[in-house]
Write a structure and sequence with these properties.
Elements (H helix, E strand, L loop, with lengths): L7 E8 L5 H5 L9 E8 L5 E2 L2 E2 L4 E3 L3 E4 L2 E5 L4 E8 L7 E10 L7 E2 L6 E16 L3 E14 L3 H4 E11 L2 E10 L4 E9 L4 E3 L5 E4 L8 E4 L7 E8 L3 E10 L2 E11 H4 L5 H7 L2 E2 L8
Parallel strand pairs: 4-22
Antiparallel strand pairs: 1-2, 2-3, 5-6, 6-7, 7-8, 8-9, 9-11, 10-11, 11-12, 13-14, 13-21, 14-15, 15-16, 17-18, 19-20, 20-21
Protein name: Hydroxyneurosporene synthase
Organism: Cereibacter changlensis
Length: 291
């Protein structure tokens, strides 16, 4: 998010695009055949890009992930994202440029989100600086976050609902996972990471509800007793998923960070897939050299 708090960007590289209807319709047997670089800008001139591409569009090395005309490259110090995408309906246009993410410290934390280890979270760098230079007027600097999720099962197979939040604090960042698994058990994780990457698990403050999203997705996030979180800026609002800038209070410190809520019961509905296909086009035949 920008230092001014009026713009933001999210970038997700998928191999096995978990929210792609095309991947679900395929039976999710070949993750490499459903890859994408999902780039979304928020604020004035915001755009949504999420093109599902086939196996021929994927190239990987230890330092680089390339999906079609876009890529992520790790230099050993920075993550450099080269963006060359086309946004989805209703505002179809080119989204091009570069994003540079510079972690202030790297962690070695790996958290299993289910007892069998089918889903794993890796918060690589909860505190970063970011430089954004993209089309539609998105040229700004701010603070950011770098993580990864890995899994060998569908999210809706193991979870009913989850929320996640990353909030900058004076000495680093606090990250929270709060989920209800499919068997009814709860996952409650609090992680504090200093700016230089020193991590420790913490007890999250109690979860506090705040206003539902536009699609009425339930939302809550940790907040000190007697305080109430609030949405500062909407980001992504879908029937099963919401992302927003949210203000909350943690250990007496007021902070604004990115919050997500995901309703896997809604996502499991087959009626949702045709709606998603409008926002997630499929380019199975893309080849390098196609542009």
């Amino acid at each position: 998010m920008s230092d001014e708090g009026d713009k933001a960007v999210s970038v997700i590289g998928f191999i096995g695009s978990v929210f792609s209807p095309w991947y679900r319709w395929s039976g999710r047997r070949e993750p490499q055949d459903h890859c994408c670089l999902n780039v979304v800008t928020y604020g004035p001139g915001g755009r949504f890009t999420m093109t599902d591409r086939g196996r021929a569009a994927l190239r990987q090395s230890d330092e680089r992930l390339t999906v079609g005309p876009s890529s992520m490259r790790w230099t050993g110090r920075q993550l450099i994202v080269e963006v060359n995408e086309v946004s989805a309906l209703p505002r179809v246009s080119a989204v091009r440029g570069r994003i540079v993410l510079t972690p202030q410290g790297l962690t070695d934390v790996e958290v299993a989100l289910t007892e069998d280890g089918a889903h794993v979270w890796r918060p690589f760098a909860p505190t970063c600086r970011i430089e954004v230079d993209l089309t539609q007027g998105h040229r700004w600097q701010g603070h950011g976050y770098l993580d990864a999720n890995f899994g060998n099962a569908a999210l809706e197979a193991d979870f009913r609902f989850w929320t996640w939040g990353r909030y900058p604090v004076s000495d680093g960042a606090a990250c929270f996972y709060d989920a209800t698994r499919k068997d009814g058990s709860r996952l409650e994780i609090g992680l504090h990471v200093t700016a230089d990457g020193e991590a420790r698990m913490i007890q999250p403050p109690p979860a506090a509800r705040f206003a539902r999203s536009g699609w009425l997705v339930e939302r809550h996030t940790p907040a000190d007793p007697g305080t109430k979180p609030r949405q500062v800026m909407p980001m992504l609002d879908a029937p099963f998923y919401t992302r927003a800038l949210v203000e909350t209070t943690i250990d007496g410190e007021r902070t604004v960070g990115v919050h997500e809520a995901l309703d896997l019961r809604r996502f499991a509905s087959p009626l949702l897939m045709p709606m998603l296909a409008v926002r997630v086009p499929r380019r199975a035949g893309w080849r390098f050299g196609d542009g």
